[in-house]
Design brief:
Blueprint lengths: L12 H51 L2 H4 L26 H14 L8 H4 L4 E6 L5 E2 L2 E2 L5 E10 L11 E10 L6
Antiparallel strand pairs: 1-4, 2-3, 4-5
Helix pairs in contact: 1-3
């Protein structure tokens, strides 16, 4: 009677393939998680930039007290683009309307059209300034005495592929209701 003893050395090929399959599925999951984290970080950055630019513009509006005396004159006009020719203003070198137009262009396009503006920092970024709005609702509260409504809108990347939107983005808007202080 022959008894054969098989001595096993190492792993079989099937065990190696199964372990590679499990490892590759895990790596794909980590890759997807990393992509979602990168998109989430980019979206959080966009919200932070939009908030900072909104605060900057509303502070500039409050620092230009002449605009409060008659907002219907259109000091903060919406007809400014990055190609618009606007005089650069330093301290008291401009009248209130020139200062307002310079402020809007700088927030929209950045300093000398190169940096830190809505158009450069935010995906499909846009600025809308409405004088004497009929209503201005912010966080569910209607501000009837607001003289300006400022909207900054941009596109955010969807975190998941099953979310709908053009080019896998969705639109976001940040709104502020502004009533600059009056000239004493």
């Amino acid at each position: 009677m022959f008894k054969s003893k098989k001595i096993q050395h190492g792993f079989s090929l099937i065990e190696v393939l199964v372990s590679l399959l499990v490892l590759s599925v895990g790596m794909l999951g980590l890759g997807g998680l990393q992509m979602a984290a990168v998109k989430g970080t980019a979206n959080a950055h966009a919200r932070t930039v939009a908030s900072a630019l909104m605060h900057d513009l509303t502070d500039r509006m409050r620092a230009n007290p002449e605009n409060a005396s008659n907002p219907a004159e259109g000091f903060y006009q919406n007809d400014i683009t990055c190609a618009s020719s606007v005089r650069r203003c330093y301290r008291d070198s401009c009248n209130p309307q020139q200062k307002a137009r310079y402020d809007v262009k700088e927030i929209l396009c950045g300093i000398q059209n190169r940096e830190a503006g809505i158009r450069h920092e935010l995906l499909n970024g846009n600025l809308l300034v409405e004088q004497t709005p009929a209503n201005c609702v912010m966080a569910g509260i209607n501000y009837t005495d607001a003289q300006y409504r400022v909207d900054i809108s941009w596109g955010e990347r969807n975190l998941h592929q099953n979310q709908t939107g053009d080019n896998n983005t969705r639109s976001q808007t940040l709104t502020a209701c502004v009533r600059p202080s009056r000239v004493p």
